[in-house]
Design goal:
The complex is a heterodimer of chains A (290) and B (287).
Chain A: H1 22-25, E1 36-45, E2 48-58, E3 63-67, H2 74-80, E4 91-99, E5 102-103, H3 111-117, E6 118-121, H4 132-143, H5 148-161, H6 165-168, H7 181-194, E7 199-203, H8 211-224, E8 229-233, H9 237-243, E9 246-252, E10 259-266, H10 267-272, H11 274-280, H12 286-289
Parallel strand pairs in A: 3-8, 3-9, 6-7, 7-8
Antiparallel strand pairs in A: 1-2, 1-4, 4-5, 9-10
Chain B: H1 3-38, H2 44-48, E1 51-52, E2 57-58, H3 61-92, H4 97-112, H5 115-129, H6 136-160, H7 164-172, H8 177-206, H9 209-214, H10 235-245, H11 249-286
Helix pairs in contact in B: 1-11, 3-4, 3-6, 3-8, 4-6, 5-6, 6-8, 7-8, 8-11, 10-11
The chains are: A alpha/beta (290), B mainly alpha (287).
Chain lengths: 290, 287
Amino acid sequence: MFEKSIGSHRGTEGTEEGRKPETLSVSLCEKKSTILSVKNLCVAIGRTTILDKISFEVAPRTVFGLVGPSGAGKSTLLRCLNRMIEMTPGSRVSGRVEFHGSNINSPTVDADALRARIGMIFQQPVIFPTSIEGNVLFGVSRLRRLSRREAAGVVEKSLREASLWNEVKDRLRSPGQALSLGQQQRLCLARTLATDPEVILMDEPTSALDARSSEAIESLILRLKASRTVVLVTHNLGQARRVTDWVACLCPSESSGAGEVLESACCDAFFGSEACRSVFRTLVDDEALS
Amino acid sequence: MTVSRRILRLLLPAAAGLCALAALSAVAFILGVLLLRGLGSVDWVFLTTDTKAAGAAGGIIFQILGTLILIATALAVAVPPALAIGLTRVVFLQNRPRAARAVDALLHAINGVPSIVFGILGLLIFLKFFDWGKSWLAGGILLGVMVLPTLAVSLVERLAAVPRKYIEAAAGLGLTREQIISAVWLQQSWTGLITGSLLGLARAAGETAPILFVTAVFSGATMPDGIRDSPLLALPYHIFVLAQDTFNEDARANLWGAALVLVMLVTCFNLASLPLRLNLHEESRHV
């Protein structure tokens, strides 16, 4: 798959000027290590094949974007990366998804323990009907024993990491559902961060938010990659361009309709590629792609 | 607008209003008669003393206590299986619609069994087979089985209304199924269990037939001191016997007093469940 990779790694050569001829930039796009690896993944729900022979790799401490038209199976693919797909009735998965080299679909792997290491943020913020503090501690307090002091520390650390601490530090006992939508999404992120996952899967986390909140989440994603790996599903090509290091494009196959990886490349190379332009030209104007 | 449509538009709310008024009038009439005839008998002495002179004097303290013992036992009997049925139906059988439908059918079948049949079954099982004699526990178990469908259906409805997003969010954090059950499913549906319990118990409190054969006596019992041969006095049975057998005017007055107390007891259960039911409807509008 990496043979396809062209262009430069974002952050090393900028955005516009970084778009180089393929032959000059192949080496800059190479990934040195892999935290998640998807090999020949096929997913069917009932009799419908949703994903067909999906393969790609995700490097640690990067933001990996999954883009593509609606119905291509991006969210389904994301749910395969922490076995959330098993909660979908009638789903069947074949192929390998490796996390640190081990197949997560192996029967010996504890799916719950896996999900604690590969957290997930959903399209709509999901706030439990409890306090802000209760929401942050919702998962972590059930995964490990916490003293009152430790719990307070976890709440502060997670809310700071999610850039929400300053806004809510004086009302931690207030209902989480009273926060604005953007704050709610950051609260969800804080709740996930409290369990200390290595990888965070984000399923269009800004699609329900206004521009300002989206911007806050985007800067958060960029900060998060210093310590964690992020896999981001997004419809927003501008966002993919701003925050991702590597992008894979999923498209429905013309023959079967099942999603398949059309292109996987580092960000700048991806947006310069003809494959990307051919897929998205019909969806967005050229300005968004450039 | 045509004339026929205009007439229909006026007739429909008028007919619906009349029907509602008729139903409310019936309830108001019953309450009115009870208050008119029973209120004179109900005082502190009536509520706190034992029955004397075959119901013509004294009070109904042991009938009230007996009824409370029966419904508390019924609650203890019905809640654990109701929880198990609710979780099985909604959580464990969520991907098996046929089995879920079978559970629904079973619950409706139990709900449809006439109360006198429960009484006869109780007679066969507890009196003939176990040889308990008349026992408070037998009555409590029978009433528990009778109200089980009400509790289970109420819990199933509430469990089924738990938003899927909460389950997925909890699973996404790495919680096990058991942790999701306690932290999400049960946390979100305890109001359903309480509502069902209160409604079920309101029904159990007024049932006469199931306790007729296995628990209740008219006089001679106070508080139970064991399981075998430990009958109870109960309000529905007390009313039943007085209504059937007495020609004494004082006893008739006490009969209406006991009926008023029973209705108040049942109304208390219904009123207690009302805020939870209203809260449930309010929540469902915001999900």
